[in-house]
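As a warm-up, study this chain.
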Amino acid sequence: MALVNDVFQALLPVMVALHYTAIDRPVTFNTPDLLAEYDYIIVGAGSAGAVVASRLSEDPHARVLVIEAGGAESGLADIPLIAATIQKSDLDWQYRTVPQTASCFGLQEQRSNWPRGKVLGGSSVLNYMLYVRGSPHDYDKWAQDGAEGWAWKDVFPYFLKSEDNKDPDISGNGYHSKGGYLTVSRSPYSTPLAEAFLEAGEYMGYPRTDINGAETTGFMIPQATLRNGARCSTRKAFLDPVLDRKNLHFSLFSHVTKVIISNDKIAKAVQFDRFGVAQIAHAKREIILSAGSVNSAQLLMLSGIGPRSHLEHLGIPVIADLPVGSNLQDHIFPGGVNFLLDEPVSVLQSRMFTPLEVAKYILTSQSLFCNHECSRRWR
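Now compare it with the structure written out below.
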């Protein structure tokens, strides 16, 4: 029996990949012959870049080029419960932090892996799919500090526009909407352990609440970017529906190495490597950097925008002395809380990797595999 289970687990990725190959329509992103000039060039087709590409290409007269260092996500990336196995793969830049002094105490050398998506959809292909808009107070603070148009009242309509909420308990409460691009739903499977966490929150005085609603502090079963039991990345939500647009071009497996800036400090073009060949694409109107928190800052510095001392040390001519890359803070993550249970009330590997669960996932999208790895959420 042990041998049968081992063989089954080894064949699981093949089975699921064949399933997605059968149901997904063929998707071709790469544009064979690129133009010399575009109206807009978008560097990075991740969580932000995919949205921007979809929006700008709505104008049929605007020529839009999307440059992405990776390719398309695999079928395995769709399975919510195995999100952690996608990290540190070819879809990930596989960054690690430098040794920390005030965190990462439980990690070797006090260094942490820092997953960043190298794929269409970016880190929305690697993350745990939690749908959390953030606190309205943070947006209002940005506006107070000078970010015009970023107050909560300004951005809230766009959250509604983008969302297609499938949770009947909250979709009509005034804080959510249907019919948008990005599918949001609850996992169809919840564990008794998750319910215990909710009860513990209530015991401490925190309500069960929609943390994307009127009250943003409390406990809840997570809202997640799930569509029919599978991950809904920004590629699926915002790019797949618009691939037929003739004015939207893609250059995949293309690494941008520099933004070319004129003497009057206007970004004019980008330099990139495509399949080992150096190329330049010119922008008539704008260049949008959406290459992620690490790579956008790196690209600015490679282009001469950053701290003068750092750029001069690397021999990069300084165009603008700015604190690029400073004060970067990732969100707090407590790591695993480990304890023994008297009863099997959580998702166990022995329950998950069974023919029944795989069949249920493939045939009905109702299975343990639909459960993302964060089976509860609190703020």
